[in-house]
Records
---
Amino acid sequence: MENTTNRAGRPPYGILSVLMIGAFIAFLNNTLLNIALPSIMTDLEVDTATVQWLTTGYMLINGIMIPATAFLIEKYSVRRLFLIAMGLFTAGTIIAGAAGIFPVLLAARMLQASGSAIMMPLLMNVMLVSFPIEKRGTAMGVFGLILMFAPAIGPTLSGWIIEHYDWPMLFHFVTPIAVVILLLGFILLKDKKEKVDIHLDVVSLVLSSLGFGGLLYGFSSAGSKGWSSPYVYLTIIIGVISLTAFVLRQSKLERPMLNFSVYRYPMFTLSSVISMTITMAMFSGMLLIPIYVQTIRGFSPMEAGLMMLPGALLNAFMSPVTGRLFDKFGGRILAVTGLFIMTITTYMLSILTVETSYAYLAVVHAVRMLGMAMVMMPVQTNGLNQLPTRLYPHGTAMNNTLQNVSGAIGTALLVTVMSTRTEVYAARLTEEALQSSAQPAAELQQQIMMKAMLEGINDAFLVSAVISIAALVLAFFMKRAKQAEELPDKVHAGKKARTS
């Protein structure tokens, strides 16, 4: 990567532009699909548990592929990795648009995910080596604007397409853009990389796949299958054992696939913990607000998307601002302020009623996303800033992997809280209603279930607020990171000691 960019010279804006557009279209395609799941269920005649694999499978492939990206970035050039990643994504998009049966569609999504998994760490690594620390916040802010804009417009655009066309149009819409980006990459990316004599450790790849894949599958399935299901607890146990073996093996390898020595740098360690905590809390809004708006309040998917649009746009357009503020003031003041806003607004979403106004939801969600914009990118950038250049690929791969895992854990936790508390409230309300009511039993039972689900959602938001408080406390320990000097890995240090 060193011959791709020159940190003392002008950043490679051409390379960055191509990479950012590629990452944007990959992100956009992922958010486009969520609203289309009911239509896919009807057309391809599959149930909820089956169609959910389009999302769960995507997450699994990301969890399996991302740990290997540190090795890929060290071994291959930006051009080669980008063309492979964009080629896989484009092929998956074309196949998905033509899929007439669910297995083909699922295989196409796996292809898309394998390309997308390479794209994000590659872009992050190029940005880290292209900009000095004092300008990195602004650069990451622009990067955040582009990538946050995709999920901002995704649900609304998807709602409009689904209302006017069939679901394959979501993929047909993306295909020509993906082909153009692939051609641009082929023409514009000219970097070369000297041959690096490193080889992928197959045992590490297997352990990593079983470890991260097992955790992601187990926690992702907990919401629908329940914690007592052997599919859930067995896969989580396999994941924990495999991941432990993976970490132990990496500490013994001279060239580890994923270098855990990044956690010898305190600011990176702190940023990882805060980022995981924030991601868990973040999923409460993405998961619970659409359930509340559509199931309890009866709004259409288009109305739900429009309600969340201001917050998503605010999050996107605040990224460059927070990037500049990060360069000027550091990450702690931004993280503390943003997490305070997140905590207050998350609590405000834990007191919803059946009469909460559309405007209240839109405003509170928008302010919550503002707080999130002040936290996520500054915290991660501050942590990565402390790493020596050699560890950038491993730091970005670690961040992206843990974000997937914490997202799965957060989703499972919040769904479990919502489901169990809904059952508790339903039993309590049913017992109270048995004292007598003039309403028909079926109508009364429906009202009870809606009220119970509302209280379950409120309790899940309350748990999310507590998670935000934990992140807020950790944020007070942040310090402005300076790039550390190279610390020798334990393996290398042992070899030096023996030779001397």
---
Amino acid sequence: MTVPLRKQLVAVAMIAAAFQLVLPWLPISPGRAISDVLIAVPAALAAYFYWRRSRHETGRVRASVLVGTVAGACWSIANLIYLADEIAANATVYLIGNVVALSAAVLLPLGVALHAPPMHGSRGYRALLDLAAVCGALFTVAWIYVLAPARTGSGFAFASALVAMEVLAASVALVTMSQNLPGRTGYAPRTLGAASVTLAAIALTGLHNNIEGHPWFAHGAGGGYLLAAGLTLIASRLETPRETTSADTRSFAGGWAFLPYVPFLLAVAAGATQQLSRGALGPVLVWVLLVTFTLVLARQFLTVAIVGRLAVKLAHQAHHDPLTGLLNRAAFHSRGAELVTAPGTTVLLIDLDGFKPINDRLGHAGGDEALVTVARRLTSAVRADDLVARLGGDEFALILPGDNSADRIRAELTAPMTVRGETVSVGASVGRATADGVRTLDELLHEADTAMYTEKAARRSSSAARPDAALPDAALPSAV
């Protein structure tokens, strides 16, 4: 029986919270040892599940689960090394554990990025701006609470390197989580991203505790590591998104799109607190905040451009036929209603003759190509202020203000065309109605429709009386 994702997340959070509550009551060394074991086990299980999945995956998905395998293995091994150091303290062993743990911390956000489908074009540029801005915001918080207090200590270089890696890791995870991800499979990168952000936050909290002389588990650091390990285990069992073009083509991800703004709010709150407590911000903070909010502004300009382009695209799709690019039925009725109020305006209704044999012989792709050619010819045969639309199937409609251009349209339409390497022709039955300034567009279309079918029936009767009536419609242009 599969446990719902929400219940798994709640269970992991409750276990981590319970462990955090118990830690203050345990001696320091046994507490660390228990923590190492509790973290090593889910990390090892995550590595195993990722490795098992890698044997059945290919491409980017396989790369993502392989990175997850290595990250989980490194994390588990690092905690086993820490456990050995608790049993027999050794500076070299502890250093090796730190190196292996940092490797896992770096690989985890890489796995998050690979879990999500790639981003292209303006979405990719926006993600890069988000990444840079989030890094700046998180660095502001880390500088105030971690790096600034450590400036006078001997471990400042190590602390700076650790902060840089953790800030980058958390930023990559947050930006990836904020992107639009396809369907339920988006849970995998977001859950793994939550693990990466949690691990980065707890690593910085642990560093802060060490600098300020607090217990190692203070401020949620003890249960936080266990929470991150549990989230990684859950993510290893979730399906990884495939590289599809359906949901991935959308630009925004609902509420998740606001996730990168959380670090900005934290940076503002931390900066305000610093200003109120000390009366001034240092030059480092001033410049970091200035660059960060410049990046945020650039990101907003890019978002406005994306939204504008998307609005134009959606408006075009709402009013145009997707195959031919001509106006669709709704747009034709909307725009044509005003044009037919002018007396003398001509309304033409065209139904192609000989189209079905093309569709039957050359397939739907051939039929589509013929329709596109017809649409292009109709457009070239009319003037800029004439209206051309595809009403559906092989039926087209035109509104011609002023001069009647039916003869020019007829000549363009019936010329032979090349479709998928074959020369074919289509004819047309044309119905015509002339506006008198009183009748509506629907009434004129009804008159044109009646005239079109009257002409079609007359031509069929004439063809039946001719000896060459057996010739296929698509072989000869039909007279209009």
---
Amino acid sequence: MYSALNALVLALPLTVSAETVVGVYMYHRHGDRTPKALKPANLTDLGYQQVYQSGEYYRSRYVDSSADVKINGLSSNIVKQSQIDVSAPSDDVLQNSAMGFLQGLYPPVGSTSATETLRNGTTITAPLNGYQLIPIGSTSTGASSEDSAWLQSTSDCGNSEVSSNNYFASSDYTSLLSSTEDFYQDLMPVVNGTFDSDYVTFKNAYVVWDLVNVAEIHNSSINSSDLLTNETLFQLRTLADKHEWGLAYNESDDLRAMAGMQLAGQIVSYLNSTITGKGAGKFGVQFGAYATFMSFFGLAQLPAANSDFRAVVDYASSMVFELFTPSDDVSSSNFPGSDDLYVRFLFHNGTATNASEPVEYPLFGRSNSTISWSDFQSEMTKFAVSTTEQWCTKCGNTTGTCAAYADSSSSGSSGASSKSSSGGGSGISTAVSGVIGAMVTLAVVLGLEALIMLVAGLRLVRKPSTKSVSGGAGAAGAASEGAEKSAA
């Protein structure tokens, strides 16, 4: 039972003057980039600016000596590597976004501060006006995320691929695939420089929208731009949101949200280390793709707070978990116990600035946006994946690193759900879905492929040919690999 003080804290608004933030974990999307359909995707100057501005905002919130929500004991000017942990997948767009963000978070310290005198009396000034070098670790999954059009293609989690493939057998998907056929074909004059007509369907809703969206931001001219009315653009975005939500999360089959499970494990692990280390680790930052946001949103029941959490987040979006105590007397020797710590969740769609700050939302379907650490940890561990053994068992992977857990993994995967995505429809069995995933990577022999297509009523969508085009929504290049990872 909560004490009267606990009850009061849980009812408080975003900040109070007496509280102290002792640790923060942030998950951040990359900035504006070139389209997925035209590989390799690259961070644009606009994207660089977006993440840099986000870094500046979070500096003003957590790092600067006059910050309103200063993280207790965090170095304000010269970074202390032990206090900050930054990671991103091995992906150019995400790694570069992380670097741009850090330049805003910890800017160059100037030639006066960035100097040292050697034994022989020589004075050395750091290059680039005291530019601060902050290492960026590499996460184990998500490599080349921005060159892939499909959520699970970089997860390496077998059962998650099976689950996401089940979406393509759901009535929600098949209904939209059929009802939007004419809508997408009407857009061919806009995108025919990049895609063949058989690619432009709801099956590839995100990649098609992404190409048009990038053109709307960057291209001075677009082929048949008169077709891109506000209503059409809204419909394209809405369909892309529905498509990606169906791949990222399913209430009756949480294996689809493995990306969110892994993130939850990382969040709990980092904040717990802040507690056990008495504030030694203060600021964890991870850059990743939009699909992980969506998976986590579903697991944490955030659509109950706002239906917009079912949509693809904008470039440079960020979500933050602040660990704090209702006291202003905190030090390593007087660090609060877990019973005196609380968590709040904040999210901002797009680049956060002082003029447009993150908003606080309640997690787990609750009414209060402040939650005790013990309750937060308990709710998160219901779905968090924190160890390699957990991941291998849930994913059903038995080779490589997972070979050591092969027995538990095989037993855990034997009961994997074969339910379809929400909306009904006959689900694809684990075995059949596994073959679908193999088909699209060309690892299945043609005879077995034909058998599955006959039994399950499936068809393979041909990957579009590479085309060149002068101007338009898709300015030259090969189509994305979205079709390679899905069956319709």
---
Amino acid sequence: MGNPSWYVPVMLGLMLLGLLWVVTFYITQQEYPVAAWGQWNLGAGFALMMAGFVMTTRWK
């Protein structure tokens, strides 16, 4: 039995969202997406990417 139809779009979406988060952080000279978080924006971006990566281990 395979994964539900929403699984792959969510998996890819998380990885892309994390990548965009990190790229936005660097392009805006560390002011966006959330200025108050400072360097923790990198952690948020990488956490999103890792969540997508962990989902790849369950992909059938």
